[in-house]
UniProtKB/TrEMBL annotation:
Domain (HTH cro/C1-type) ranges: 18-70
UniProt xrefs under InterPro entries: Cro/C1-type_HTH (IPR001387), DUF5753 (IPR043917), Lambda_DNA-bd_dom_sf (IPR010982)
Name by which UniProt lists this protein: Transcriptional regulator with XRE-family HTH domain
Pfam families documented for this protein: DUF5753, HTH_31
Listed Gene3D superfamilies: lambda repressor-like DNA-binding domains
Organism: Streptomyces clavifer
Domain of life: Bacteria
SUPFAM superfamilies from the UniProt entry: lambda repressor-like DNA-binding domains (SSF47413)
Length: 274
């Protein structure tokens, strides 16, 4: 039976409850925004699960709705360590039974080693502190715990060859990163395919893409750019994204050939051949 229900995150449930409590209090989004000292648009984002209120905003919401600290207490249990555009995706990853990911230029976050992730975070920031880098590396690598189980989620990883060639963090870091990917592929933890440079244009050349499948909910798709991301649950958009993924995968190297190429690239990095 086809599943049409969109997977619900804790953020979405928080927003739904906020909307219900606001309606029960006979307040419009504009009226609640006035009492919380924020725009009605921000209230709309809270109710849609796209944003979370700050602790101060949550306290003002409780006062406006006479909810006795309900939203402030619940906020403490919600995961706020991710950027707003990615937080829902991180939560849905933990629910997914199937993850199909494509990376255009960087190793996907779920597969990054500490050294690779640290080098990326250092490059993103003109001014960085060691403690900030440590925190962000821990947050990113904690996501990979969903791969500790031997079966779920099933993971397919499609990489543009550019991912293998750009030396992030130096030769040793890059060699270790590619070695980890190859190890996981050979151990059966992920299915690996590479889109080689010689292929030329392919269906996913414009964007990172992740497809998430669930046991009891409809699939979603996620694309990301600089400081932004877009989670799609519209069936037509998800279907188009899956078609693009399938087209690119059909042009990719086989699993065995891809593992061999990743191993060879790791050796080239380790011996300074790039």
């Amino acid at each position: 039976m086809e599943l049409n229900r969109t997977p619900r995150t804790a953020r979405a449930k928080y927003g739904d409850e906020l909307r219900l409590k606001r309606i029960a209090a006979k307040l419009t989004q504009e009226a609640l925004g006035e009492q919380v000292v924020c725009s009605p648009t921000l209230i709309s984002h809270f109710e849609a699960g796209r944003r979370l209120p700050s602790p101060d905003d949550a306290q003002r919401i409780d006062r406006a709705l006479s909810t006795d600290g309900f939203f402030a207490r619940w906020l403490e249990d919600l995961d706020t360590k991710y950027a707003d555009h990615f937080a829902a995706v991180a939560e849905l990853e933990r629910q997914a039974t199937l993850i199909q990911q494509f990376a255009l230029s960087l190793v996907p976050g779920l597969l990054q080693t500490d050294g690779y992730a640290r080098a990326l975070f250092r490059a993103y920031r003109p001014n960085h502190r060691a403690e900030d880098l440590d925190r962000d590396v821990v947050i990113r690598t904690e996501r990979a715990r969903i791969l500790d189980g031997p079966l779920n989620p099933v993971v397919w990883t499609l990489l543009d060859e550019a991912v293998l060639r750009r030396r992030v963090g130096g030769a040793h870091v890059m060699a270790k990163q590619l070695g980890r990917i190859a190890d996981m592929a050979e151990a059966g933890r992920l299915r690996l395919h590479v889109l080689p440079f010689g292929l030329g244009a392919h269906a996913l050349q414009e964007s990172l893409l992740s497809l998430l499948g669930f046991e009891d909910a409809a699939p979603v798709a996620y694309v990301e750019g600089l400081l932004t991301g877009h989670l799609m649950d519209d069936p037509a958009l998800v279907k188009a994204s899956r078609t693009a993924y399938d087209l690119a995968a059909s042009d990719a190297m086989s699993h065995q050939e891809s593992v061999a190429l990743v191993r060879a690239a790791a050796e080239e990095h380790e011996h300074g051949q790039q």
